[in-house]
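Predict structure. Chain length: 234.
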Amino acid sequence: MAGRAITIKATEGGEYAAYVSVLASGRGPGLLVFQEAFGVNAHMRSVADRFAADGYMAIAPDVFWRIKPGIELDYGEAAIAKGLELMMQFDPDQGIVDAGATLAALRALQECQGKVGVVGFCLGGGLAYLTAARHDVDVAIGYYGVGTETHLDEADAIRCPLLLHFSGEDRFVTAETVAQIDDRFAARSDAAVYLYADAQHGFNSNDRAAYNPEVAATAYARTLGTLRGAIGPA
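Prediction complete.
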């Protein structure tokens, strides 16, 4: 997949970078891809590329740009500590304002045609949920989204299909928290919450020790099924 960097003007001034993965087919539905706590690193670019290979015009913005632009971390102990530090400094409400600018930039790309969705991982999983609550998107998907439970009072604002993946062995999002989230959406036929009992936080990343290929494949199949049903492509 061919990727390129673009610059997005923030709504309240300033600008930030985003990685765009271009569709081989030319045009398709759009997908905002939110990073983990490690920046738009090689893994996140590969995630965007994979979605592009499956038919989505994917864009991955640098959500930490107000703290430290262009940060890319690996998954070593020092990097994990740095990622947690950045998460503590990060303002999710401001991040969702920036999400609006990113969505506008995505829709303005000539390769983006049709509906638009959002997917996120870890920090980005929580941002995907909040984006669905506060912006106009056609589908939202979160992987082990940190902080989702703190915004369940906004659940009724989500009008699009919602898919949430969680890990059974997750020190950041407990099974009790997942049960709380699941209960909040139990009455919605367009929402699904999956708990993968033996998986750890970060199970989707093949660059991490937590990588679980079987669970990652199952989750991705469900993700693609939800995307296909909500935004295509046909």
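Summary: Residues 3-231 form a domain with the Rossmann fold fold (CATH 3.40.50.1820).
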